[in-house]
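Here is one chain, start to finish.
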Amino acid sequence: MEDLSFIAGLIGNIFSIFLLLSPIRTFSQIVKNKSTEEFDSFPYVSILLNSIMGFYYGVIRPGLYMLAIISGLGVLIQLVYVVLFLIHAPPKIRAKTAILVGVLNVGFPILVFLIIQYTMHEDLQIEVLGFIRAGISIVMSASPLVAVKRVLMTKSVEYMPFLLSFCFFTNGVVWTCYAILVEDLSILASSGIGSVLGTLQLVVYAIYSKCETPSNGILDELDDGWQHKRLLNEDNQDV
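Its structure:
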């Protein structure tokens, strides 16, 4: 069983790294233009929060070193993205992003750590932190539904590329298998929902992709994901 969970965790880490590195082209553009233009910082700040909580949970919960590894790597990668965003954002957006980072990436994790560490015994710490991590992950898993909504409204899969949708789906399935093998209900809940939403994305893509033109390549498909599109202007109407 341990060998199977190791293999599942390893495969899950590979797909997770693939997703974590998908904004590289976006930030290459930001650095090159020395401007964040109309890109939104919230997706990167929220993924950083999820990685922080995942790392904490993977450390205190025995046997979840695979989750701790990928979450720790996620913290480092997302920190780079957030720092680059802060450097190149205009003053007003930089201030907004700094507040988000202070509240979500510093204040909230510290508050959770203090409450859990000093008011709960070890077993309860694991349960509560697992519940918090699962809640954050479930909210993030639902985020691509914005892209699904746009596809249904426009009858176009431009904003929901197949490769990214496939990675979301596969990542969810693999981590669901991992959760079953290590018997962790919090990971099972978040990954299971991610799998279902990933399936929904693929079904919608299959229905509306027939009239689309071919993609320019793998990097373009990854870079066009929900978390990397410009989220101002017309996108604000979807919120």
